[in-house]
């Protein structure tokens, strides 16, 4: 349970208690629970959907689909603290800088965000908003629940199956102490979760994770491994792909 709480408090803004010390071993052990953390995020998003789409209309308060999509995007960023958004922008800044590998890693570590990262993030948010607008309301709760689950499953694969590109860093603890057993367990229960939503959800999830891993492989070839920022970028891209394939298949 402590390892799950570690993952939850690291990947989200949800806090059960204040913890000032984190060990590398606990970081590594928490990796197996990342898709479950995604399920918690998914439940928050579904709650936002239910409040806006079902409960507020009972009180005579109605919002357009545009507002619903905007609130879902905002809720997702708020509950995660924008953690993976930062990783996405840093990764885009680095890999599209056109610099040598070592310089790319320095750019990704810089706390400042460049034009590439900002531009890519704006386009990314617009695409996510558009996909949320296009998914049928009948299937939207399933999409927004599975989106963070599969995004964090792809992160687990990235952590356990790819080398780490830096000699140190926070992401190193995940890579060093999370073994293949964490991957197999996360894959097993994530598959059960996805199957509950039907065959089309399984196809959408499988396609999204495969494409997300292709993106991970692309980053790994450039950087000779992945970083903590890259884990965040992979998560964000996989989440977007889940919504994209929901638009195509549903």
Describe the protein.
- The protein has 250 residues and is mostly helical.
- It has one domain.
- Helices cover 77% and strands 0% of the residues.
- The chain has 12 helices and no strands.
- The protein has helices at residues 2-11, 24-30, 34-58, 65-80, 83-95, 101-109, 115-134, 140-161, 170-177, 180-195, 199-223, 228-249.
- α5 (83-95) crosses α7 (115-134) and α8 (140-161) packs parallel to α11 (199-223).
- 42% of the residues are buried.
- The model has no long low-confidence stretch (mean pLDDT 93).
Secondary structure layout plus pairing:
Elements: H1 2-11, H2 24-30, H3 34-58, H4 65-80, H5 83-95, H6 101-109, H7 115-134, H8 140-161, H9 170-177, H10 180-195, H11 199-223, H12 228-249
Largest sheet: none
Report the principal-axis shape: globular
Percentage beta strand: under 5%
Q: Between the first and last Cα atoms, what is the distance in angstroms? A: 36 Å
Overall pLDDT score: 93
Number of domains: 1
- The class by helix and strand makeup works out as mainly alpha
What's the helix-strand series? HHHHHHHHHHHH
Computed CA radius of gyration, to the nearest angstrom: 18 Å
Q: Count the beta strands.
A: 0
Helix content: over 70%
- Count, helices: 12
Low-confidence stretches: none
